[in-house]
Write the structure tokens for this entry.
Amino acid sequence: MSVMAASLAPRPSDDVSLAARATELLGIGSARADDDWRDLHQEVREGRLVALPTLLEWLDERYDGQVLEVELERDDGRIIYDIELVGAQGQVVEFEFDAGSGELLSIEGVGIDAMQRPAPRDAD
């Protein structure tokens, strides 16, 4: 069951982080959310679920792409974030995270390697 979904198609003129864009479009903290969303938001505030901006920042550090879609789903009692990124070559890659732990569960798509950012070098 999908709890929420939002299209996060990039705007060419934007120079905004993935986290800021998703937060804006998903209306995090907004009073317009239904009861289920409020319960999930409360779980994030209490630290039982990882906040979406945290995962988007993690992705932004490691992958070059724009957020296409974010879904928060319940799957067999587990809460899962599905985050789709579109790469420079038009490839769509889906990342699945455990919302409770933030653990990356799976990556699916074509051209994933082309989206990976170089690992940061240690400062000497």
User: Anything to note?
Assistant: Helices lie at 18-26, 35-45, 52-62, 112-115.
